[in-house]
Amino acid sequence: MSDKTQALAKAMREAGPACCNSTAAASEVLAQSGFDTLTPENRAVALARVLGLMVSKSAKSIAETSWDFHTFATALANNINSQGAVDWTLVIQALDYPEFAVQDAAGFEFIVKAFRTAAKVLNHLSAAA
């Protein structure tokens, strides 16, 4: 695993859930991590690590920390460069890494909602363009 694919999750872990409080904050973390320089395959790996970070605690902890995936997905969609959109099927496949663990059903539900949110946000923004 390259440092580049782990940079986004590392930056988000250090910033905490506050980096998803606004699209501006999420965009800043995306820019600082160099996300826009990644290949589509490495983007998928980086986003899988972000999802893993977001569900790494129990449902109670997720509720307490309140990662706002919708805000993150909106920032992501706004910052995608000419290399193209994120392939969310690849993101889900990239969740198959040794450290990935879902603590409970709420964590699994978070991933499903994140996948649906990403699809909805990206479709909405591409339709508006």
Report on this structure.
The chain is mainly alpha-helical and 129 residues long. It has one domain. It is 68% helix and 0% strand. It contains seven helices and no strands. The protein has helices at 3-15, 23-33, 40-54, 59-65, 69-79, 88-94, 105-128. α1 packs antiparallel against α2 (23-33), α2 crosses α5 (69-79) and α3 crosses α6 (88-94). The longest helix has 24 residues, at 105-128. The protein is globular and about 30 Å long. It starts with a helix and ends with a helix.
Write a brief structural summary:
By secondary structure, this protein is an all-alpha fold. It has helices at 3-15, 23-33, 40-54, 59-65, 69-79, 88-94, 105-128.
β-strand number: 0
Helix/strand order, N-terminal first: HHHHHHH
Low-confidence stretches: none
- What's the helix count? 7
Domains counted in the coordinates: how many?
A: 1
